[in-house]
Amino acid sequence: MSHSSRLAAQGLTLPTIAAPVGSYVPALRYGDLVTTSGQLPFVNGTLQATGIVGADGGVTAEVAADCARTAVLNAVAAAAVAAGGIDAIARVVKVTGFVASAPHFGGQPTVMNAASDLLAEIFGAAGQHVRSAVGVAALPLNAPVEIELTVAVTA
Predict the structure, then answer these.
(1) Residue 37 DSSP code
(2) Every domain of the chain and the residues it spans
(3) Could you tell me if 130 and 94 are in contact, meaning their C-beta atoms sit under 8 angstroms apart?
(4) Which among 2, 66, 128, 135 would be 20 to 30 A from 120, CA to CA?
(5) The pTM is what?
(6) For the domain 3-153, what is the CATH code?
(7) How confident is the model at residue 27 (pLDDT cuts 50, 70, 90)?
(8) 48 to 8, 92, 126: CA distances (angstroms)
């Protein structure tokens, strides 16, 4: 089954890539690799949620996990454009997830599992990857999650 078929089977479509908010490009192909800039959980140009994960009155781990799914889907969209389409992606190589976290919050890996699980749903075995899940004090635009993606592409 193709990646595009798996995506459709999940009831998902690749979103339009968000315009950069700085001096960078959303994704860059170099040889057989595509690396994305950090992608935020934008839905139709608006952040899905804002705030610090685990803080009083902040974002819950469950909401952050949903944001991670959105952010990684945005990263896949950016990578697909640079690769020449989602079916040109041979495999997911590396995912780096940043979670804006309260000092006591240690659930970054659980938040990022939502992104990793979505990649497995879309790419099957080719979605297995290495990953870092990092807690940070703050992210751009007060987003709770930011994700970078590196994929290998076909010729």
Answers:
(1) P
(2) 3-153
(3) yes
(4) 135
(5) 0.97
(6) 3.30.1330.40
(7) very high
(8) 22, 24, 28
